Amino acid sequence: MRTAPVIPVLVIDDAAKARPLAEALVKGGLRVLEVTMRTPAALDAIREMKKVPGAIVGAGTVVNTRQFEQVMKEDAEFIVSPGLTDRLGDAIARSGVPYLPGVANAGDIMRGMDLGLSHFKFFPAETSGGLKALKALAGPFYEAKFCPTGGITPATAPDWLAFEPILCVGGSWITSGSLEEVEAKAREAAALPR
User: Fold this and answer.
1) CB-CB contact of 179 with 21 (8 Å)
2) What whole-number distance in Å separates Cα of residue 86 and Cα of residue 90?
3) Which of 35, 90, 101, 192 is deepest in the core (most CB within 10 A)?
4) Residue 115, Cβ density class (10 Å: 0-12 exposed, 13-18 middle, ≥19 buried)
5) Rounded to an integer, what is the distance from CA 174 to the centroid of its chain?
6) Residue pair 35/58 in contact by the 8 Å Cβ criterion
7) Which helix (H) or strand (E) holds 91?
8) Which pLDDT tens digit goes with each residue over 123-133?
9) Which residues contact 130 (CB under 8 A, 6 or more apart)?
10) Strand pairing class (56-60; 32-36)
11) In the CATH hierarchy, which fold is given to the domain comprising 6-186?
12) Are 88 and 62 within 8 A, CB to CB?
């Protein structure tokens, strides 16, 4: 979460495009890449992106233990889930792989802390009350660190990143356009202050 201010959230339909996309993102300064498990090509995309020197490739939108087992076979370097269940959270926490479970309220954060977790994905960030809501939650959970995702834009990312408990934000805006445009957006995102 401290590697770069933005983690690209990647939905990949064609694994053949995964490696060139990862190369453009890494060249632009974003090394941490979250490949969502939303498409049939996701596992192949993780495998291809891991071939890029300097890339730190993880799996996102992991919603059950079956998917967790699948991505671990591909050596995913971190796991992100949209929510937190006891069964999935326990399995991932016991594995030791870095894990960002999605949280949107105090109960979610408490469940994660019961599992020994202290880093969370605040999701969906904008529709869960935005920065104002996260500031309210961060008070009682002063030890927690966050990566808000969901509705973050290049215009709003600096406001989120200025809040101390936020280590990075997740964003999908970086991945649209040509590879040259992706690299340019990655470079701008990597330069965001925090």
Assistant:
1) yes
2) 6
3) 35
4) middle
5) 13
6) yes
7) helix 86-95
8) 999 999 999 99
9) 151
10) parallel
11) TIM Barrel (3.20.20)
12) yes
Residue type, 133: A
93-105: pLDDT as tens digits = 999 999 999 999 9
Q: What residues contact residue 15 under an 8 Å CB cut-off, 6+ apart?
A: 41, 44, 45, 47, 48
For the chain, the distance separating the N- and C-terminal CA atoms, rounded to the nearest angstrom, is 12
Cα atoms in the 13 Å half-sphere on the side-chain side of 12: 28
Task: Report d(CA 18, CA 138) in Å as an integer.
Answer: 35
pLDDT of residue 65: 98
Residue 116's alpha-carbon distances to 79, 101, 111, 120, in angstroms, are 15, 12, 9, 12
CB burial class (10 A; 0-12, 13-18, 19+) of residue 14?
Answer: exposed
For the chain, helix (H) and strand (E) counts, in that order, are: 8, 8
CA distance 59 to 119: 16
pLDDT of residue 194: 87
Tokens of 165: 């408990």
Residues labelled catalytic: 34, 121
Percent of the chain having pLDDT more than 90? 99
Instruction: Give the pairing type, strands 119-122 and 99-103.
Output: parallel
